[in-house]
Amino acid sequence: MNQYLIEFKKPYSFEGVEYGDVDLSNLENLSTGDLIEADGQFSESGQFAVMNEMTTSYACILAAKASGKPIEFFQRLPAIEGVKVKRVVMGFFNS
Q: What stretch of H or E contains 67?
């Protein structure tokens, strides 16, 4: 079982393409430099958190990096799917 595969409750349409899932397996291949870039993106967006990795926004940034999809893909997900993304990213940090 792929712990990084997020299956959507119903098909998600983004830029004219339907998605049934998104795979974040590449989280395991991110570098510390990728995390630093994500920190910068998070800060540049005007957000602040004591622990970035606990926020939905930061999870979306890392999910975009891991999947190769634009951040808008994750920002436009239905809320229930966004929560799944956040859980997977947080689980990655807690593993």
A: helix 56-67
